[in-house]
Amino acid sequence: MIQITHIRPASGRVAATFSAVVGDLALSGCALIRRDNGYVVSVPRVGSPSRSVLLNAAELAALETAAVEALRTH
């Protein structure tokens, strides 16, 4: 289950910042970044600067889709 909360649209390269819940993991400080061919999601680092959040490819894709939809309906 993915839930997008506290979405804040932005201008420029960053389309929006938001918080999300992916399964049991709460993520604050996420960003939806515009690319030439669409969007990409940036997720916060947890614990140490060298360790990113452990999401698999399917979860990242679903998070990106949910964030784009939330931005469009915001």
What does this structure look like?
The chain is α+β, with helices and mostly antiparallel strands and 74 residues long. The protein contains one helix and four strands. Strand 2 and strand 3 (25-35) form a beta hairpin. The longest helix is centred in the C-terminal third of the chain and has 17 residues, at 57-73. The chain is globular, with a radius of gyration of 12 Å. The relative contact order is 0.25.
Task: List the defining traits of the structure above.
single chain, 74 residues, alpha+beta, four-stranded antiparallel beta sheet, 1 helix, 4 strands, 45% strand
List strands and helices in order, with pairings:
Layout: E1 2-9, E2 14-22, E3 25-35, E4 38-42, H1 57-73
Distance between the termini: 20 Å
The shape, in one word, is: globular
Radius of gyration: 12 Å
The H/E string reads: EEEEH
Strand order of the largest sheet: 1-2-3-4
**Biggest sheet overview:** 4 strands, antiparallel
Q: What is the overall pLDDT average?
A: 89
Tally of alpha and pi helices: 1
Helical content (DSSP H or I, runs of 4+): 10-25%
Q: Which ranges are low-confidence, i.e. pLDDT below 50, for 5 or more consecutive residues?
A: none
What is the number of strand segments? 4
Portion of residues in beta strands equals: 35-45%
| Secondary structural class | alpha+beta
